[in-house]
Amino acid sequence: MKKLIYLIRPVFIIRFAICKLRSFYYTWKYIDDGNGRIVFKDPFLKVKIKKHITSKLIINGNFRISPFMEGNNPIVISMSSNSTLHIKSDFIIGQGVRFFLMPNSTLIIGGKELESDSGITSETLIMVYKKIEIGKDFLCAWDIFISDSDWHQICDQNHQADVKIGDHVWIANNNNILKGTNIGKNSIVASNSKIINKTFPDNVLIGGLPAIILKTNINWKRDIVNSLVL
What predicted TM-score, i.e. pTM, was given to this entire model? Predict the structure, then answer.
């Protein structure tokens, strides 16, 4: 048993050291402003950050990179000229998360405030043509597409409209949050829903294709509270 412990211990030390080195390097190389840092929780998860010299990455708090259920798809952050990505507090992303910011675009993410954590689980694509704003205590599952543009011109209509997601919003898996979406605070978007050019109030459960209000006066928490019934 002692021999096994002696063999395992160096592996953990090496993994820990690689995470520390990657965290230091990515923080030093890519963050332009803010008092935060990039923190790797896995030594080998691939992360590609591509920044134009005029783009700006602002991080306050810890921007954590941590795989979900041992996934290994690469994380990509691509920032075109004069684009801004601002993460205002602690935030975590998992494997397969991709941010694409077009020239002169802005992506704002509030990060953690009252909940135990805030982040994007995995396999999610956020494409910003002009502006997407995500509030504090955002909880996002997997296979989500968020975008403020159609990315094609259709019958001369405006292809872009800002997206705003309020504080304390939970987006379940397999959802499309598209241009012109405005989701009020403390809301939930049910699985397999699609929202485009719609505004929803606070404290609602949203779902469907197209999405509608399914329930009002809702409340939710990130953590499951275990209680003993006597």
Answer: 0.92
